[in-house]
Amino acid sequence: MSITNNLLKIKQETDSLGITLVAISKTKTVEAIQEAYAAGQRIFGENQVQELVEKQEALPKDIAWHMVGHLQSNKVKYIAPFITLIHSVDSLKLLIEINKQAKKNNRIIDCLLQVHIADEDTKFGLAYDELIELLRSEGFPNLENVRIVGLMGIATNTDNEKVIKEEFYELKTLFNGIKTSFFRKNDQFKELSMGMSSDYKIAIEQGSTMIRLGSTIFGAR
Ligand SMILES: *Cc1c(COP(=O)(O)O)cnc(C)c1O
C-alpha cells in the first residue's frame, strides 16, 4: 500500500471520531513526507531535534510540527521558533527552558506532560508523584509562555493487550483527575496523546484524542 492509501484508510477510522492524527516521520525522507502532505496530512512528528529542524526547513511552512521524543533543555532553542506541540515534557527544568525560549520568540508553546505508564525502565516520562509535584511547584504558575494542553504516554511494548489496555485506562483516569484538580477552569487542557501503530485501536477505545502513527503510514523503519 502507498503512503496515500495508508493515510486515507487511517483517516476513515479516526476523522469521524475527532481524533488528531500525528504522522510520525522520523527516519523517513522529505519525499515520503511530501507524499503524505499531498494527500492532505499537515501534522507531522519527529523525535530528534536535528532531523526535525532540517525537515522543517525543507518542507512547506504550513506543516504543524510536533516533537514527540525526549528533549534536552539545551536543544529547545532550535525548535522554539516553529514547534507547534511538544509531547515529551518530563521535568520542570525543561518546561522552564521552553518558557524562556518561547518568550524570546514572542510565542506561546503548547506542551503535553509525558507520564511514565509503561512497565519498562527505558521509557521516559514523569512518575505520578513527579507529575503532581511539578504541577504544585512554586514556579509553575509563572510560566506564561507555555500552555499545558494535556498528557502523553507510551504503553509497554508487548503483545499482551490487557496490559496495554490497563496502562491506557490508568492514563485516562489520571488525565481526568489532573483536569479536575489543576485545570478545572481551563478549556485548553483537553489532549490525551496515546496510541502508536501497534496499539492505537486500544488507545482510542480508552479515550485517546491524539494518536502518533509512524509505520502504519510510512511502512516499517
Ligand atoms: C516512533 C514513535 C511513534 C510511532 O511509532 P510507530 O510504531 O511507527 O507508529 C510514536 N510515538 C513516539 C514517541 C515515537 O517515538
TrEMBL record:
The modification N6-(pyridoxal phosphate)lysine is found at residue 26. InterPro entries: Ala_racemase_N, PLP-binding_barrel, PyrdxlP_homeostasis. It comes from the Bacteria. Residues 3-220 form the Alanine racemase N-terminal domain. Keywords: Pyridoxal phosphate. Pfam families: Ala_racemase_N. Pyridoxal 5'-phosphate (PLP)-binding protein, which is involved in PLP homeostasis. Belongs to the pyridoxal phosphate-binding protein YggS/PROSC family. This is Pyridoxal phosphate homeostasis protein. It comes from Olivibacter ginsenosidimutans.
